[in-house]
Design a protein that fits this description.
Layout lengths: L1 H14 L3 H9 L1 H30 L18 H19 L2 H29 L5 H8 L14 H10 L11 H4 L11 H24 L2 H8 L8 H9 L1 H27 L7 H16 L3 H4 L1 H25 L19 H21 L7 H18 L4
Helix pairs in contact: 2-3, 3-4, 3-11, 3-12, 3-13, 3-15, 4-12, 4-13, 5-9, 5-12, 9-11, 11-12, 12-13, 15-16, 15-17, 16-17
Length: 393
């Protein structure tokens, strides 16, 4: 929340630029095209994972086979049809523009919050929790993770939660949204999404899964040495019935919608003469195709950590330019009367910081979200040094 309020919203209301226009002024139009392509594709994959989440809820009434943690390909024609229909619907809403996306989110948010809270309480009843000590005993210290899965500690959860949205806040993608805000204080509104949308939702999801783990079906999976499925739709349906199905559909929708919208803005810079509506529909089409493959959703934690790690450092260029450029006598690219074609300082800062810390992560088997902030700071510092001493002209 502090990242959105103190950085993203502050810069957004100062300049009223989208991320892509902001980058074009600093990096030049040649480099920003490559960034926009990567940005748009990664956003499409994330939106596709959210379409997958909603599809698990739609498939419940049809007794659809749910994807497993290890699934990569679609597991049936029903799955394909459900994903295609949802993808078309989500894409159309996103293509109608920011106003429609905002109205849809405002309508759905209260219903989703109510469902999260209801799921949590129902799960507590099913787990026979009567006091905080009962709750803590169930929560416990965790146990051995499922085969092929990472053991998460408190710090894994803390840093992943902070940087799951790294591309949006410290990566500056939400400049595209906050440019419409009257004041930078609008950045505080992200607390609703974080503390209610994420915090309560994740606790409720954990409790629902704790209930499911005790079921005969889950025990059968465990006895065979495989991880039970974690499809959100059936978990919510088992707790609060049809309302759970609706809530999961809307939860996936409210994440996929703005993500497709952001991807459309990224692709729009590559095809400026094309209709915004159809460019966004194209982005939605890519997201829908990604949603057909359960691997994006089943490996969502790893994917989100990676895409935030890659995209967030470029936001450091914008932040360091805004706060430190004048103090260090670095050219004011944002108000320059000419257009840049290429900025080597940005490319080298981004590339060196990402490659350095990603290699460090692989070499030492370090959780990638632990290194997102150091990578971001490193990128900003390298950019300032190169801009002042190597590529000032």
């Amino acid at each position: 929340v502090l990242s959105w309020r103190l950085l993203t919203a502050e810069i957004a209301v100062r300049y009223r630029f989208t991320l892509y226009h902001h980058l074009e002024k600093i990096t030049g139009n040649q480099m920003v095209k490559g960034y926009n392509l990567a940005n748009g594709v990664l956003f499409c994959f994330l939106a596709g994972a959210m379409i997958t989440v909603s599809a698990t809820a739609v498939g419940v009434p049809f007794n659809m086979e749910m994807p497993q943690l290890t699934d990569t390909l679609p597991n049936g024609i029903t799955w394909v049809i459900v994903v295609l229909i949802l993808g078309l619907l989500f894409s159309f809403i996103a293509a109608k523009g920011f106003g429609t996306v905002s109205k849809a989110a405002n309508f759905m948010a209260p219903l989703i919050i109510l469902a999260f809270v209801a799921c949590g309480f129902v799960a507590l009843i099913q787990l026979e929790v009567g006091s905080f000590s009962d709750f803590w005993n169930i929560w416990g210290e965790g146990s051995t993770p499922f085969p092929g899965q990472l053991k998460y500690t408190f710090w894994h959860v803390c840093f992943w939660s902070w940087f799951a949205n790294a591309a949006m806040h410290i990566g500056m993608s939400d400049l595209s949204v906050f440019r419409y805000a009257e004041k930078a204080s609008s950045g505080w509104t992200t607390a609703v999404g974080m503390y209610i949308g994420h915090y309560i939702a994740w606790i409720a999801a954990a409790l629902l899964y704790a209930v499911y783990i005790q079921s005969p079906e889950a025990q059968a999976y465990l006895s065979n040495g495989t991880a039970p499925p974690v499809a959100p739709g059936p978990l919510a349906y088992n707790a609060i019935g049809v309302f759970g199905i609706i809530a999961v559909i809307l939860a996936g929708w409210t994440t996929a919608n703005p993500t497709i919208y952001r991807a459309g803005l990224a692709f729009q810079t590559l095809f400026p003469k094309r209709s915004t509506f159809w460019v966004t529909m194209f982005a939605g089409g890519v997201a829908t195709v990604a949603g057909l493959f359960p691997a994006f959703a089943m490996k969502l934690l790893d994917f989100v950590a990676l895409y935030g790690f890659i995209l967030a450092p470029i936001g450091a260029v914008i932040v360091f330019q805004h706060f430190f450029a004048n103090r260090m006598n670095i050219p004011d690219y944002l108000n320059a009367p000419y257009k840049r074609t290429f900025n080597w300082s940005v490319l080298l800062a981004w590339g060196l910081s990402v490659l350095l810390f990603y290699g460090f992560s692989v070499q030492n088997d370090i959780f990638l979200s632990f290194l997102t902030l150091p990578t971001w700071i490193c990128c900003g510092l390298i950019y300032l040094v190169f801009s002042k001493y190597l590529f000032k002209s």
